[in-house]
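Hi all, long-time lurker, first post. I run a small reading group and we've been trying to get comfortable going from sequence to structure in the token notation. Rather than ask abstract questions, I figured I'd post a concrete chain and ask someone more experienced to write out its structure so we can walk through it together at our next meeting. Sequence below, copied exactly:
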Amino acid sequence: MVSWRDLVSVAVGGALGTAARAGLTLALAGVLGPALVPIVNVAGAFAIGILFGIRARMPRSTRAERAQLFFGTGVLGGFTTYSALAVESADLTLLWWGAATVVVGTFAAWLGVLIGRGRRAS
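-- Answer (accepted) --
Happy to help. Here is the structure in token form:
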């Protein structure tokens, strides 16, 4: 069961992750242009994978579960922006861009899990 404390933790983490993404957008949108959204999403997927891998090695505890909610669901969930990717992919000429981002993001998450668990990719 999700508590109010957990809900607030996810909301605060999400606000921080969204603010970080917005800051990167303000700082780098002129330099990276439309590549910024896929870069943010792949970096976020990689970080979520690392977090998941580390969490898999840890014993179950309320503290670890709350940290995962705050950092994984909240901060990194707010940092990634698959909704912006979906909007960009709605333009059929950019559909390949969205599909490639999902494939690369999935690979990045898998690699992050391996790293987080302390294993090398084979």
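A couple of things your group might point at:
Helices lie at 4-32, 36-57, 62-79, 82-89, 95-117.
The chain is about 80% helix and 0% strand.
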